[in-house]
Each structure stands twice: as C-alpha cells, then as structure tokens.
Amino acid sequence: MPAATWRGALTAREARRRFPPSWERAHGVTPAQLHAITDAVGEVLGAEPLGRLELADRIQAHLGDPTVTEALSTSWGLLLKPAAARGLLCFGPTDGTRSTFVSPTGWLGRTIPHVDAVEADRALLLRFLGANGPATLADVAHWWGEQPPPARARLRANADALVDVRVEGGNGFVVAADDAEELAGTDGGPGAADPPLLLPGFDVWTIAPRSHRRRALPEGTEKHVSRTAGWISPVLVDDGRIVATWEHEVRGDTLTVTLSPLGAGPLPDVAVAARAWAAMLGTGDVVIGTGPSLA
After folding, report:
1. Which Pfam families match (predicted)?
2. Which residues contact 31 (CB under 8 A, 6 or more apart)?
3. In order of start, what are the domains of the chain with their CATH numbers?
4. Is the entire prediction scored with pTM above 0.70?
C-alpha cells in the first residue's frame, strides 16, 4: 500500500477508540499497561526489522516489566494492534517464515504528513465501495468495525458521491461516478462469456463484504470456505456463485488442481482458469480432478 494511502486509512480510523476496557480485560492487561506497551513500541521500533519475540524483549527491557513478555509473544500479536492503529508499527519484510515489524516513519525515512480526518474518512469509504460495491449498510459497518448507526451517518455524510441501488431485493450502495452507469447497463448478472474463476485463498471477493455470502454460497457450506483459525479457502466461482473449493499441487512440470464441490450440480470447465495458474506457477502441464463432495 502506498504510504499516502496507508496514512489516509489510518487517519480515518484513529479518531474512534477501538480498544475499550473490555478488550483490555480479555487480553490480560490493564489500561495503563496497554498504553505503556503502545508508547514503548514507538520508542523501540525503527527501520530495523524485528521479529515478534525480539520486539517483545525490547519492550520488556524498555518498560522494566517482565509480565508483558508472554502476552506480547503470542502468534496473533493482539497487544500490538493499538500501536498499529496509531501508526507506530507495520509489517516489515518477511524473514523466512517469520513475520517482522518496523516503524513506518523509520522504514520510509521520513515523517508521514497529516491527512485531514474528514477527507480521509470519505476517501476510505469510497475506496471500499469502489472495490466491494454494491455494499449494504451492514457491510460498511462490519468492515469498519462499528455499529450500524455511525455507519449510516457516514453514508449520509457522503451521499453526494453515492447511489443507492437494489440488489436481489435489498439495498446497497455504489460510487456514483465510477459504478452507477456501468451497473445500469448490465442485465443483473455476469454475461454468458464470463469464465469461471479459481480464486486464491483469502481473496478479497470471498472475504468482503459479508452479506454476499448468503447469495454466493450453498446453504450450510460456509464452514468449508471460512474455516477454523481464520483460514479462507481457495474457491471456484461460477456465475457469481461459489460452487467448489480447490487446492493445487506442483510436481515437476505439472500442476494438479483438485476441486471439492459444494453442491450436487455439475462443475464448470475450469481449464482456462487452471492454465492461467499454471502459467503463473511456471508449469507446462495441467491435471484437473474432482475430490469428495462437501455438500
């Protein structure tokens, strides 16, 4: 993400408190400890990438509080979220399989300029709707991490840039300048020439906005797409519907794609999509197979 865009996204969120006392209690720290940890991140982190344990050790040494080390060392890094929300921390380059962290200003070697909060708020909303629209009020609220009333106020404040549309009987919003004319010229669904897509794991279409899952997924199959520990499966999308999950294996010059159907109907031909993956992965041959049904 470009630094200017990151700063705008950060500014749009930072005015709201996202870490209430209940969050602090659930993660075993007092408000004073969390504030001290967050401030310490800004003091000890610079341009040098630090792994999670290294950062925890430096924070502990800076604070002289050994009780914070264990809480900071968890793989989820939850106690680092407030520092990230304040712009004191971001991911650095991966070191093998190990995540690292850097100071954004230290990594860039310059001060990141202030962005007006109202302008940043508007820009972030329009970017979200441009990528995910039509999106509902609930989608906007969930993505932003807030309740529907402030999300509704946000949509109203930017109504001049939005168009309210109907999506399969419900209301959604799109960016007027970018999407309204294009949507007006469609028949309500993909054209006959639209090929099926093999989307990777954690693809943004699969993840957000959430309300489209009930239209895109066969009933009772969401657990196969949104799995334990936050894992989002690779999926096969046909005519706007998720019809299978898939996995791949590369052996020598051959890519093997295995589809696991989510419904009883026949699966579409995915040869074109599979060949695109083969080209990206540098293999010449493609084998497509079908695994057990997950329906």
Report:
1. AlkZ-like
2. 21, 24
3. 3-108 (1.10.10.10), 117-184 (1.10.10.10), 197-290 (no CATH)
4. yes
